[in-house]
Amino acid sequence: MSDPIKIAVRPLVEYVFRGGSLESGFRNMGTMVEGTKAHQKIQKQYSELDQSEVYLSVEIPFGDLLFVIDGRCDGILAAEDGTYTIDEIKSTSADIGLITEESYPVHWAQAKFYAYMYAKANGISAMSIQLTYVDLDVEEQRRFVQKLDFAELENFVNDMVGQYVPYAKMSARHRMRRNQSIVDLAFPFPGYRAGQRKLAGAVYKTIEEGVSLFAKAPTGIGKTISTTFPTLKAIGQGLLERLFYLTARTTTRTAAEEAFALMESKGLHLHAVTLTAKEKICFQEKVSCRKEDCEYADGYYDRINGAVLDILSNETRMNREVIEQYARKHRVCPFEFSLDVSYASDAIICDYNYIFDPRISLKRMFAEQKSQTVLLVDEAHNLVDRAREMYSSTLNYLSFVDLQQEFKDLNHGIHDVTQGLTAYLIKLREQAAQEPLILKEPPVDFMMMVESFALQAENELVNAGHAEQNTLLLDAYFAAQNFVRISKLYDERYVTYVEVIQQEVTIKMFCLDPSFLLGEMGKSFRSHIYFSATLSPLGYYRDMLAADEEDYSLSIPSPFSPEQLDVHVEPLSTRYHDRKGSKSRLVQLLFELTANRKGNYLFFFPSYAYMNEIHEAFMAQESDARVLLQRGNLSEEERDGFLSAFDAKNRRTLIGFAVMGGIFSEGVDLVGDRLTGVVVVGVGLPQIGLERNIIRDYFNEAGKDGFDYAYVYPGMNKVLQAGGRLIRSEADRGVIVLVDDRYLQPHYAALLPPEWRERMVVGRGLRG
Ligand code: SF4
Question: Quick one: pLDDT at residue 44?
């Protein structure tokens, strides 16, 4: 017999009873926020003999398989006549009067399972089963009761397990093959590069000890393979069941896919799935997930089990194309399908938000699964600002004003609540007219109004009807829903600010320090491996990414020879008020550099405005170079076109003007002579502005250096990323020019990589 198959009651019955269509994407606010409270309220009414939250477990042999099934039932009610009732509580804000005994077979199934487990453990010949529905809005309750004898319960449970068997068998076979292939897998290169073994060893040790790792690992050491390979080995050793490879960008997702492809070519057998954003992978022209609008939503749950079984039985690497192919074959939504596949996969390659964003995190992952899962967080320096956005929420005056008009005669509830919201925001507009209003306390009255709006909007959307207005309402509903969700997270790490720009009033609950929430969202996972070439200074990132004391830090030196790189500092001032004065000197420097040294260059600027200004002045010179300029909102084709111009065989010098922190300053690999020089203008500081100043003040008050946290560290990170485009392999050579006098200040210089500092020449190298 193979290893026992462990599964909880709820996922098992949900698997067997799945059926019907996808919902339109809005979820029940009431259930979401009050479900636990409703349970507790009912449980408080239990008598002394009754028990609540009872853990139950049972072993069920089935052919050559052994199932170990467990779960926690809401209540076991003991009657004086010695009979027992399983109580299963379900809370809803839908109309409770419409719920009948037949409405939710899956709820009966769950309760029957618990009844069987309790009866078997205690030798009871018959059990009663009760479903208790609680209406959250009016606090009404409705109960349905059935009585079954032990044989009926046993037949029912065996039937359910039988329906799960094909999937369980496929999983068990796959798991055995996977584990053996991992044990046999050798490192997929002839040898380890410098630094690789150290990183791989640290990753394995970190997972073994169940702690986390913060690794500064330079470009060129092969971070993807050095993190995935030891993690797979930990799976092979039974320490883990799965890994998430989390990235900020699509390009790094490709690198992870390639690593798994390489290891597969060496014998690895593994289910790896890549998640693609809903808007990108959707088969329809417009994302509208109602069954009336989308054939892939209609009947989704009737077909999903077959689709998942099919893809997992026949595929290992499930990238976007493969997901799309099977989604079409089974007529299921490709996005939801990819999520369903991910719950059953060994490696999931996806954006950070599937784990850390409360709006879209993979919610069906149970704590026990998390404890067998490792998060590999690539380019982890990006997570700080991404998390700030995930945990912040904004609402605007104008969207409510429009709704107030639209629903005047259609829905008085929505009209009245939006009227209240707009009146509130008009008052705030007066208070914030001169300068933004910054509040430490949450706007409780406003939050209550937003919550009431969300419930009204949800009812309207559920009942549909006013189709033309629904897009407007749906957008406002999602924004309000997010605002409500974020309001539940609000604490001393937040402020609320109100900003007025012309007629528009924006109110934002702004998360200043995301470390606590990152810790909460990432809780229960076995280990987190944060890695980046620019996780510097490490102390700052440990602080912002919620490191515990026992977590490891690692800093790996560059694998390249110092001779591959020349670093020049040009001590011009690029501060905003000095730019006019330093402009002609800067243009002259750029001209001389490219005139005297033929090659392919990237010039990075802190903003589009500054870049455009210098570009215009540069073009007035008589340069022979071909010059490209980054524009905002480039399409994927335009981006690829820009990069493909960087050809090692170019006869003329090529110059790309680009912005720091943009799409060309991170995750771009221009190996060999495709890039021979990088100029970084300025120290990358974000523009002085309201949000950055709020962050600065917050960290100052917290006893840290607020200016460093808000400006210097994020800015210098962009510098390191931009400069890091240059040397990508042992064969690369090139020059980095750092234009700013602040590079000579010890505080800034200390933030540069040692290999840059070693090679630094001041103010005399541009003539080549
Ligand atoms: S295919 Fe598009 S519209 Fe249809 S359910 Fe999926 S995401 Fe929604």
Answer: 87
Positive or negative, the Cα torsion across 265, 270, 271, 274?
negative
Q: For ligand 1, say whether the CB of 296 is within 6 Å of any of its atoms.
A: yes
pLDDT for position 732? 83
Residue 668: per-residue pLDDT: 84
Contacts of 678 by beta carbon, 8 Å cutoff, 6+ apart: 601, 602, 603, 604, 722, 723, 725, 726, 734, 735, 736, 737
412-431 vs 444-463: helix crossing angle, rounded to 10: 150
Distance CA(323)–CA(304), nearest Å, equals 13
Written as six digits, the tokens of 144 are: 């349905």
Q: Which residues contact residue 20 at a Cβ distance below 8 angstroms, ignoring those fewer than 6 apart? A: 299, 300, 301, 302
Give the integer Cα–Cα distance in Å for 591 and 365: 56
* Rounded distance between C-alpha atoms, residue 636 and residue 642, angstroms: 10
69 ligand 1 Cβ < 6 A: no
Q: Which residues contact 479 (CB under 8 A, 6 or more apart)?
A: 393, 394, 395, 399
d(CA 480, CA 472): 12
Taking the centre of ligand 1 as the mean of its atom positions, its distance from the CA of residue 666, in whole angstroms, is 31
Per-residue pLDDT tens over the stretch 623-650: 889 999 999 888 889 999 999 999 999 9
Q: Is there an atom of ligand 1 within 6 Å of 278 CB?
A: yes
Tell me if 283 CB under 6 Å of ligand 1: yes
Q: How far apart are alpha carbons 555 and 533 in whole angstroms?
A: 9
pLDDT of residue 768: 42
What amino acid is encoded at 545 in this protein?
L
Q: What is the per-residue burial (b if ≥16 Cβ within 10 Å, else e) of 259-273? A: bbeebbeeebbbbbb
With a cut of 50, which residues of the chain have pLDDT below it? 25-34, 765, 767-768
With b for 16 or more beta-carbon neighbours within 10 A and e for fewer, the 102-118 pattern comes to: eebeebbbbbbbbbbbb
What's the angle, vertex CA 289, arms to CA 287 and CA 291, rounded to 5?
A: 140
